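FAQ

Q: What does a record look like?
A: Structure on top, sequence underneath. For example:
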């Protein structure tokens, strides 16, 4: 669904005030004092700031507990504890992926996200349940958010026979991206895991987005194998490494050569700016020319109780985690959550410029930095020229 709209007196990216004329879902003109064409709705921008739609570049729509009874988390400390606990309890907790993904999608839209990349579990206990559910939401809520799916072997790929065949089925079903997970720490077979997922990328001509939680030397080793395959298979610009905690290692002799290669191979990094000690250094990556995006990751799921799908808050977390204090540094966090995500998701018609899709958020504030700091709930969210959320109320509801 596309629409026409004239937004008066708004400040694109906190610049000078002007009008934005949207025709058929695209930004047709940005200028002062545009005459309203007949029949076109007019929205008063009130001198507020317009930013391009927020990009939730890493989440798990299929597994949020949003709207379900409160889940008391008593899960063990290891990654495998969380993986097994979730898989074993999904049906007991009635985590219907179609309903849960719809709930999180509406919440994301309310907070200003116009694009979502969602990893979706593929495992031998649940088969295509998650993929089919999130695809139902992708198709049913296309008017408020664009969603792309990553087929994600959350429980491991080779350690659970049958998963690779399901991953293949998920790609056939229309997942846009191949996922992967800790080739050393979970599958304990880095070569086998990476050859399998890169094989799927080759078969379907799709990009890769791999979860890499492995720390220090182990993570660096896996990253090296990923870069080796990216180079050999001509997948420059088609690989994202999510989390990449090893880049937060304090040893420059380990990290610097990795960053140089990431830049050379145009491999993107996704960071949630986690509170744990090792996290990718955002400014250093950007300075090296690496594309960086961010995401909420799991929102109120069996892994943890936090999250509200607010990518402006995520920009603040990036600032806090990276010790950003200057305005130009804080603004980098917002860049990561907008244009950075769009670059990673290869959204061609993204941005506040004539000819681009009219996906934007209007928020009160003096500067971009102030937007991040105050995170006003007074947001107007425009998707393809239509106001889809206003001050916390969406045009859509979820079951
Ligand atoms: Zn994740």
């Amino acid at each position: 669904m596309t629409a026409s709209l004239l937004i008066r007196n708004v400040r694109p990216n906190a610049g000078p005030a002007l009008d934005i004329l949207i025709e058929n879902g695209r930004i047709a003109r940005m200028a002062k004092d545009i005459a309203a064409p007949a029949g076109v709705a007019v929205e008063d921008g009130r001198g507020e700031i317009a930013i391009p739609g927020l990009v939730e570049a890493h989440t798990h729509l299929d597994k949020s507990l949003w709207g379900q009874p409160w889940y008391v988390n008593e899960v063990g400390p290891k990654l495998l504890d969380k993986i097994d606990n979730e898989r074993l309890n999904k049906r007991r907790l009635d985590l219907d992926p179609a309903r849960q993904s719809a709930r999180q999608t509406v919440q994301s839209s309310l907070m200003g996200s116009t694009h979502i990349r969602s990893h979706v579990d593929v495992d031998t206990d649940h088969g295509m349940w998650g993929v089919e559910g999130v695809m139902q939401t992708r198709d049913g809520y296309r008017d408020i958010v664009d969603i792309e799916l990553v087929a994600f072997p959350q429980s491991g790929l080779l350690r659970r026979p049958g998963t690779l065949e399901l991953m293949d089925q998920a790609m056939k079903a229309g997942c846009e991206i191949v996922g992967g997970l800790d080739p050393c720490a979970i599958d304990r077979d880095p070569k086998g895991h990476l050859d399998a997922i890169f094989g799927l990328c080759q078969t379907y001509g799709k990009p890769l987005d791999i979860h890499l939680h492995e720390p220090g030397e182990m993570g660096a080793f896996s990253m090296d194998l990923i870069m080796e395959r990216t180079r050999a298979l001509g997948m420059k610009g088609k690989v994202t490494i999510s989390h990449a905690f090893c880049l937060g290692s304090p040893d420059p002799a380990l990290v610097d050569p990795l960053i140089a290669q990431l830049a050379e191979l145009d491999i993107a990094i996704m960071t949630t700016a986690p509170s744990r000690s090792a996290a990718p250094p955002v400014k250093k990556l950007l300075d090296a020319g690496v594309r960086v995006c961010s995401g909420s990751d799991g929102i109120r799921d069996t892994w943890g109780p936090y999250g509200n799908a607010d990518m402006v808050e995520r920009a603040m977390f990036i600032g806090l985690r990276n010790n950003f204090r200057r305005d130009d540094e804080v603004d980098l966090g917002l860049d990561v959550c907008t244009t950075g995500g769009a670059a990673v998701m290869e959204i061609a018609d993204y941005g506040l410029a004539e000819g681009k899709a009219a996906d934007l958020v209007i928020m009160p504030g003096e500067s971009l930095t102030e937007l991040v700091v105050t995170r006003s709930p007074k947001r107007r969210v425009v998707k393809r020229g239509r106001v889809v959320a206003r001050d916390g109320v969406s045009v859509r509801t979820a079951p």
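Q: Is there anything notable about this one?
A: The chain has two domains: 5-52+353-391, 54-345.
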